[in-house]
Amino acid sequence: MNENRTLFLTGEFLDETARYSLSELLEICDVDDACLLEFVQYGIVDPAGEAPENWRFSSLHAWRVHRAVRLQSDLGLNVAGAALCLDLLDEIARLRIQLRSRR
Amino acid sequence: MQFRDYYKVMGVDEAASADEIKKAYRVLARKFHPDVSKEKDAEEKFKELGEAYEVLKDPEKRQEYDNLRKYGYNDGGDFQPPPGWGGGTFRDAGFGGAGGGDFSDFFEAMFGRGGPGSARGYRDIRSRGRDLHYRLGVDLEEAFAGSTRTIHLQAAGGGQRSLNVKVPAGVTEGQNIRLRGQGEPGIGGGPAGDLYLEIEIKPHRHFRLDGKNIHLEVPVAPWEAGLGAEITVPTLGGSVKLKIPAGARSGQKLRLKGKGIPGPGAGDQIVDIKVVMPPVRSEKDEELLRRMAETMDFDPRAELNG
Question: What's the pLDDT tens digit per position in B282-304?
Fold first, then answer.
């Protein structure tokens, strides 16, 4: 690395823009398609598009898949449990933001 | 290296049964899971817990550890593995990547890096590194204009790692930014995890953030509210002129379009009008108010008493 220049990393915003295909998401999240299919069935992620070949996922979806996988493996949750847990965590996060902006 | 008291980490007695240890793990794993916990060092504690459980759940490892503990090592005390200790032989057994493990040096000195059946990562030879989470406190000014920040992360193995990151203009409370490949290193050639930055906007003295909108309470004099006025109000992008319409009342809001947090769907600045009473400092001031009381037909409590 050049000593005179500091390298600044630019991150990617997690948002709802649908940008990844099924295969791209599988690669990003390092999961297999059976696992992801189950996540879709349980509503952990809700891709745009009708059939799997047309599915489009957002970066927020990728993040939810990551968290679902971790919750499952670390806490021994099943898919329904991970889905409920994520919904509740998101709700808490939303309420926290609301609370902070009221202060 | 430091000796780790796994019993203390798990909050169990050294005579605890396998069931008690399993139960303690389940409770603490929920408490310190980085996705669930809001505690600052949850990530670190969760890792410690995983390591402690990895040893105490396995009768063989637990026995080995207990033997060592009997030498009189204390938590956090200096630890040198006794000569000929078995574990170290696994060191550097083909798990490429600097500091590529989840566990402490102490664990590795005891059991090596390739112990089978461990909680995370080691089960498969190739596995993805763990994601890291970091909450980044950002001033409202930084959220508006963007900034660059240096953050310090705990590296695997105990050291510190610094990263320079760009905070783009337009970040909002609770937003997540992913830095790909900046999490913990992968194992056996697996990809590195990601680093997630969660934005936390610090409270501001005057401005209040609501999504992408910014609220500002602006005091106005009764004559400004009554007669209308052009006043100067601060925004994050600098001062602007604002027209107060005649007959404005306290609590009314004026919108400065596009003067909130920038970016796609830029926010507005919402000015909350607050009519304030001027201090009465002289006889002249008093006289003025008396004349108002006499000439103006106004009952501020009309609705209450109606």
Answer: 999 999 999 999 999 999 999 89
Chain B positions touching A93 (Cβ under 8 A) are: 174
| Tens digits of residue pLDDT in B50-81 | 889 989 999 998 998 888 888 766 666 676 76
The C-alpha of A52 sits at a distance from chain B's nearest C-alpha, in angstroms, of 25
List the domain boundaries for chain A. 18-102
pTM: 0.67
Q: Of A28-32, A33-37, A79-83, A97-101, where does mean pLDDT reach its minimum?
A: A97-101
Domains defined for chain B, CATH in brackets: 6-111 (1.10.287.110), 132-201 (2.60.260.20), 207-297 (2.60.260.20)
The CATH classification number of A18-102 equals 1.10.1660.10
Around Cβ A97, how many Cβ atoms within 10 Å? 19
- End-to-end CA, chain A: 44
Candidates B46, B164, B179; nearest CB to A7: B164
Give dist(CA B272, CA B274) in Å, integer. 6
Could you give the CA distance from residue A80 to residue A78 in angstroms, rounded to a whole number?
Answer: 6
Three-state secondary structure call for residue B214: strand
Place of tokens 């490429």: B96
Q: Are strands B195-201 and B176-179 parallel, antiparallel or unpaired?
A: antiparallel
| Backbone region of residue B174 per phi and psi (left: phi > 0; alpha: psi in -120 to 50; beta: other values) | left
Please tell me whether the interface predicted TM-score (ipTM) of this complex is above 0.85: no
Task: Note whether B29 contacts A75, CB cutoff 8 Å.
Answer: yes
Q: In a 10 Å sphere around its CB, with 0-12 CB exposed, 13-18 middle and 19+ buried, how is residue B286 labelled?
A: exposed
Residue B135: C-alpha distances to residues A24, A61, B45 (Å): 27, 20, 16
- Residue B150, SS3 per DSSP: strand
Least confident of A69-83, B19-33, B156-170: B156-170
On the question of pLDDT at B159 being above 80, the answer is no
A32 touches B: beta carbon within 8 Å:
no
